[in-house]
Amino acid sequence: MNKEEWISVSDQYIMGTYRRYPVVFTRGKGMKICDTEGREYLDFVAGIAVCSLGHAHPRVTEAIKNQADKLIHVSNLYHIEAQIEYAKLLMQNSVLDKVFFCNSGAEANEGAIKLAKKYGNDLSNGSKNETITMDGSFHGRTMATITATGQEKFQQGFNPLLAGFKYVPFNDLRLLGKTISEKTCAVMIEPVQAEGGIRVPDRDYFQQVRRLCNEKEVLLILDEVQVGMGRTGTLFAHEQEGIIPDIVTMAKAMGNGFPLGAVLAKDSIAAAFAPGSHASTFGGNPLAMAAAKATLETLLGENLLSNCRLMGGYFIDKLNDLKKKHSAIKEVRGRGLLIGVELDCEAAGVIKKCMDRGVLVASAGTQVLRFVPPLIVTAQDIDQIVAILDDILREGA
Fold it and tell me: Which domains are delineated in the chain?
């Protein structure tokens, strides 16, 4: 089939939950991805911060093939060798103690909310069960996580939302302190707001939030679904804040494209989940664990975190140079290789023009370009996309 035929069949059988671009991808390698027409694109989306090692990474591919030959799935009613191996590796590289595996970021955040409620209710005879989240946040598409999300556009049409959530402005410690009450069990925050426009808080914000949560005896949940697994230049984004959270959620880049999520917690908090409290049929199955272990070993062993910091700084510098040339760029912000460029116009037109020139870029809100390339990105790749942006903005976005 040609591209138009593929798209026609897609429209016929797949629910229209995305405004998909008119392209059909079939294969990729490293920083490049190819469509059905044989055209190659430089990928600065990486499945929205998922394929951090690039496409078809040989180590991950080999791990999946080898595991598929042995055992794809077994119930969590039993101990699973590959799950135990990966859990040990992950937790030895974190500041937390226990992990629960699931299949996505929404599931991870749902699990974290449940864990915090269970912990709070157990301590208070059922009165400490509200969660505070941030305006502009994004935590997922389940009923609990869209309620936790501090953006009305994601909640429209799904009333009534769930009870037990309050919202405060991101990066506003004073209002957070005023909003915490005797009913609050947890504060849930993204270290960098990704879907909210790539918003980075003040440098001391998280240390103050940690102190406030300690004072009020409230759990601190960090949603690292998009910012974790090296995206900001350290394995966990909170490492750069100098704090120890109570619960951390992860997903996106954990399996380099293989669906996987996780909830990490301190021992004392994880204990609130007893047998029967929470579960996942597919969570942590052998195939997912093989992909995740190969991904983490590669991330830690091939200097990709240092490359993320180096290339992230280089990219931001180049974009700021571009900002000096083009008034259409209002602000450049980000951390590591999670970078946003706020425009004075709609981002969609620029994204389409980038695609026409063979580069994939995403958005984070209507006027923010989002750049989340694989962590293997080079200065040459960055120079190429900056030159393309320069041409587009010169022509008039």
Answer: 3-56+303-395 (3.90.1150.10), 59-301 (3.40.640.10)
